[in-house]
Amino acid sequence: MIKRSRQREAIRQCLTGRYDHPTAETVYMSIKDEFPNISLGTVYRNLSLLSDLGEIQKITISGGPDRFDGNPAPHYHFSCRECGCVMDLDMPSQEQLNQIAAEQFDGTIENHSILFSGLCPDCKKKNTH
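and the corresponding structure tokens:
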């Protein structure tokens, strides 16, 4: 069992209800007033632990910093190649992908993660004008 930590709880709470999928640095900036002695390394370690425990999601972005999502339920994300925003995609989780992948794989498929990329609605509008 993992010992409870006020700092870890504050980090988790910081992510709850946010939909901007912040970086570790953004989380750090959000809680450093409440915990002035907290280090960025502590934030990184706690985000990694919370992700490993399945309490949050870590979203790995190619060419950018990892982003974090307080919603641990299976869902998909979109990353804009222009402005860098990360957002949830409103679509049902495709659980059958696990079964399809398992049919082609001798190991055990437990879950999957999909990150879509392209232009967000705002950047798409800017590029069409």
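(Above: one complete record from the training split.) DSSP finds five helices and five strands in the chain.
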